Amino acid sequence: MTCICKNCGVSFEGVFCPNCAQKASTGRLNVSDVVHEMWHNFTHTDRSVLGFIAGLFTKPGIVIREYIAGKRKKYFNPYTFFLVSSAILIFITKKVFHYEDSLYHYNNEFGQFTSEQYTIIILFSLPFMGGILRMIFSGRDINYSEWITFLIFSYCLINVIQIVIQLIYFPLIKYHHTVLLSYTELSSYVILFFLLVKFIQPRNFGGWTKCTVSILVLFFFVEWVAKIIALWLANPISLTRLISNYSVF
User: Fold this and answer.
1) What is the reported pLDDT for 79?
2) Residue closest to 148 by CA, chosen among 169, 123, 171, 115
3) Rounded distance, CA 15 to CA 27, Å?
């Protein structure tokens, strides 16, 4: 029986459209379709969110190298996951500060401001961070776009871990005010170093040195250059408080 694909308009016979692979039986959405798609996207072994997260925790180097090598259909889209997880992290972080204020009235506007801006700063720093890694590892056959992709994967995992940390703060909210934001951000660079080592697989002193230098340069660029510029543009008063906070270390 000939049918017209509702997605691309091609006339065909069979179960799937030969042009876009959409099912011939696709019709109007109902509740069961929505539930099925949500469940499928989170639990199906192929391209699932849970499978993607599990892969980043258990075999990050392999996941990143396979994706860069061309095995794109195997994994959930990392760019989509990065944007969604970043939005979730900003939302939960804001809720943590609001919950803390409702209980203890700290009104830590500076801490909330820097936490919310930090994820955005990372987003706009990615092009520069990719260039830094490209220069440091110029001897490797990894181009600029592939380094950006490595960073996207890295911050997907970092976002997941930071989301868990923020959720833990809810039952432990009385300790939130005593934990310096710098320590939370510092953990991101520890994770980034771990993923860089898994991705590069250094086999000599020179390789390990480049990995270490890379993280130190990225830390300096994001925490000083990018953050200072962003805070200066957004709120000069916050910039003054940032510099005073760092002066205690």
Assistant:
1) 92
2) 123
3) 13
CA of 149: how far to CAs of 61, 212, 213, 248, in Å?
A: 12, 20, 20, 35
Reported as a pLDDT band with limits 50, 70 and 90, residue 45 is very low
In Å, how far from its chain's centre is CA 201? 22
Query: In this model, does residue 43 exceed pLDDT 80?
Result: no
Q: How far apart are CA 132 and CA 114, in angstroms?
A: 24
Task: Taking the CA atoms of 188, 190, 195 and 196 in sequence, report the sign of the dihedral they define.
Answer: positive
Q: How do residues 206-226 score in pLDDT, each as one tens digit? A: 999 999 999 999 999 988 888
**The pair of three-digit structure tokens given for residue 126, joined into one six-digit string:** 């990615």
Question: Is 142:65 a contact under the CB 8 Å cutoff?
Answer: no
User: In the numeric block, which tokens belong to residue 221?
Assistant: 């660029």
pLDDT tens profile 108-158: 666 666 676 788 888 889 999 999 999 999 999 999 999 999 999 999 999
Report which DSSP code applies to 70: T
Amino acid of residue 65: R
Task: With beta carbons less than 8 A apart as the criterion, state whether 238 and 175 touch.
Answer: no
Q: Are 204 and 70 in contact (CB under 8 A)?
A: no
Would you state the pLDDT for residue 68? 94
The mean pLDDT of 23-27, rounded to a whole number, is: 71
State the DSSP string of 132-194. HHHHHTTTSS--HHHHHHHHHHHHHHHHHHHHHHHHHHTTTGGGTTTS-HHHHHHHHHHHHHH
For β-strands 11-13 and 2-4, DSSP reports them as antiparallel
Residue 233 Cα distances to 4, 42, 167, 237, angstroms: 54, 39, 30, 10
